[in-house]
Amino acid sequence: VLENRDLRDSIKPQKVEFRSLNFNSTLHWQPGRAGEARDTVYFVQYKQYGHSTWQTKLECWGIHTHVCDLTNETSDIQEPYYGRVKAVSAGVSSDWSLSCRFTPWRDTMVGPPTVTVVHSNKSLILKLQAPRSPYKRKRGSNKPMTNYYDLVYQVFIINNLLDEQHRGLVYEGKRKVIKIEDLKPGVSYCVVAKTYLPKLDRSSAYSSRQCIVL
């Protein structure tokens, strides 16, 4: 019995956590402290906070990987959720490992905007597009993250002659089209942008660099 108990404890999944970007939300975990036997399989359940019964995620029932997509199961973004995982190896089942509470609206990371750069002789025109959520409009397109948050765009310009770290903030606000004027011809400029969420006081990563020589 003790040996069995030890095995159950040693295969129990570790570090069960939600990771979420623009409401694409997945449950992640690591193998138990015994490492992973070839025959180890994992079983995932989830529930909304306050509900008594756990729901089984059929696509993640008896899987070998360490990730389970729960995007559709956590679509009520203001509600808190839990996930849990157990492992089965050599016919022995571990106890469930529980995630921390996950509330999509509060806990998802919002990505940077997509930046398109058009240039004229001494100016750059930037078009910003908010990241999109996985949730669909009636017409079938994905809803932008501006449907869920009051997003502010922060645009930075990098003059390539200067130090890479010298990122000047040239715009902060909600406009989707921005013009940056009085730039020097023949100089290479790079533009990056972030989204900022005032309510949560949180910024996205930088967008990928768009570079242009005027």
TrEMBL record:
One of its GO terms (cellular component) is extracellular region. CDD domains: FN3 (cd00063). One of its GO terms (molecular function) is cytokine receptor activity. Keywords: Disulfide bond, Receptor, Repeat, Secreted, Signal. It comes from Upupa epops. Pfam families: Interfer-bind, Tissue_fac. The gene is Il22ra2. It is found in: Secreted. Receptor for IL22. Binds to IL22, prevents interaction with the functional IL-22R complex and blocks the activity of IL22 (in vitro). May play an important role as an IL22 antagonist in the regulation of inflammatory responses. Residues 12-107 form the Fibronectin type-III domain. Belongs to the type II cytokine receptor family. This is Interleukin-22 receptor subunit alpha-2. Its main location: secreted. InterPro entries: FN3_dom, FN3_sf, Ig-like_fold, Interferon/interleukin_rcp_dom, Type-II_Cytokine-TF_Rcpt.
